[in-house]
Amino acid sequence: xxxxxxxxxxxxxxxxxxxxxxxxxxxxxxxxxxxxxxxxxxxxxxxxxxxxxxxxxxxxxxxxxxxxxxxxxxxxxxxxxxxxxxxxxxxxxxxxxxxxxxxxxxxxxxxxxxxxxxxxxxxxxxxxxxxxxxxxxxxxxxxxxxxxxxxxxxxxxxxxxxxxxxxxxxxxxxxxxxxxxxxxxxxxxxxxxxxxxxxxxxxxxxxxxxxxxxxxxxxxxxxxxxxxxxxxxxxxxxxxxxxxxxxxxxxxxxxxxxxxxxxxxx
Length: 266
Description:
alpha/beta
């Protein structure tokens, strides 16, 4: 049994990149992860971890006044715990203006309007392949960082999971939830993963310089286990265009979209 913690980044209107990241943790190891996390909080004397706020010492957060040495130490410890207990990690990034240019209304009608929904859909596909390779027969549990009930993002994730369940019945329905990051160490670990991959994606797309902490965090994940632990995609423009053309031309994809609209029309 595996639990997959999922976080997103870049959802703000002023951000040019959207990203979804997932950390796969064997459910049998969550208790040990939680115990080691509790020791970290006690030793470093903070309540919960939020990568962006901690990295920049955001105003009115508990990280204000932290010395660089402590920030680096805490980031190192969080990365260590994520790698120690996570079986695999995945991340998918999309440049928003390229998504808007190539993804047609036909695809958005069934696939969702939001950029990060595309990233989550591809993340789920990659996780599916990974858990198949790990011979996971029982349904896995997906835990998403909190989104308010009734919010557009939560509704679209529900659609992604429902569509995935229509292809693999019983694997997704009833096997996902939304939880507050502060409650679960696994979500705090994937928060750092998402932040590091987001910062790298912005660098790759826009040549925005990486801070030393962001660069170290990304490559620490990327190089772990000889580069076999994390699969991080920064979607290229030509690959996105090719994917859109293939989806629109594939009769099976056309039929799935037609069936979905027929069954869910109001």
